[in-house]
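Module 6 notes. Inverse folding takes a fixed backbone as the condition and produces residue identities as the prediction. Think of it as a translation problem where the source language is geometry and the target language is the twenty amino acids. Below is one complete input and output pair. Work through it position by position during the lab.
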């Protein structure tokens, strides 16, 4: 197999940067939403869950169009960011990171919510009875115990961000060395006459990266599942 070319390395490194930034900016909110949904029952919870999971079922192009309306130069949020912070997201790699964060957010929330739901509530209640305030209970008890679910969610969000195409194309476009991530680079290659042969290396590499991320997430979830933890506790007790 021939060595990876400079444009391919640029697409790979840009995709890794976009995915890393997407996970970084969305993880705190995903933790907050996952904890909230795992611990609270309230009127309208089904509506909140529907909104959170909507990017999973919406066509990515529709998600990208909505982001373009909100964060474009004439959008409310886009105009605000441009005038106050000088931050422009359209046709920029930061817009690609925003699109990846939105699309991967539901997967992160699902895993994180399961992680918090698996925490023994008796441990949290014991900390509260000892006088620990809610924030200390969260950071000292709930979050450390739910951390495997948080990590699995971050890995899934990272993998989903690497494969984002439709929403990224709408808000960031396909600009060489600027916004052309791995999926956009593959699409660009396949439009050329010798595209399939040229895209073969990066297609195989993207499959390997995605498979490794999914395998890591699965191993984390299996290793920290409640049944497995119960079996380990039983073995130590015996």
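Target side of the pair, the amino acids:
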């Amino acid at each position: 197999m021939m060595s990876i070319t400079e444009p391919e390395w640029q697409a790979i490194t840009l995709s890794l940067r976009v995915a890393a930034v997407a996970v970084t900016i969305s993880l705190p909110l995903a933790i907050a939403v996952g904890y909230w949904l795992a611990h609270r029952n309230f009127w309208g919870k089904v509506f909140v869950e529907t909104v959170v999971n909507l990017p999973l079922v919406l066509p990515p192009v529709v998600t990208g169009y909505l982001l373009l309306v909100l964060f474009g130069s004439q959008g409310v949020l886009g105009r605000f960011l441009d005038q106050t912070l000088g931050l422009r997201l359209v046709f920029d790699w930061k817009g690609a990171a925003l699109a990846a964060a939105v699309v991967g957010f539901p997967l992160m929330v699902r895993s994180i919510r399961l992680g918090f739901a698996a925490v023994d509530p008796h441990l949290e209640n014991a900390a509260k009875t000892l006088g620990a305030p809610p924030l200390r209970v969260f950071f000292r008890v709930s979050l450390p115990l739910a951390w495997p679910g948080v990590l699995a969610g971050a890995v899934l969000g990272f993998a989903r961000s690497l494969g984002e195409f439709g929403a990224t194309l709408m808000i960031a476009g396909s600009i060489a060395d600027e916004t052309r991530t791995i999926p956009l680079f593959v699409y660009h290659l396949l439009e050329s006459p010798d595209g399939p042969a040229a895209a073969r290396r990066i297609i195989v590499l993207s499959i390997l990266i995605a498979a490794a991320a999914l395998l890591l997430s699965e191993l984390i979830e299996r290793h920290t599942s409640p049944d497995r933890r119960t079996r380990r506790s039983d073995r130590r007790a015996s």
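Reference fact for the lab report: Residues 115 and 153 are 9 Å apart (CA to CA).
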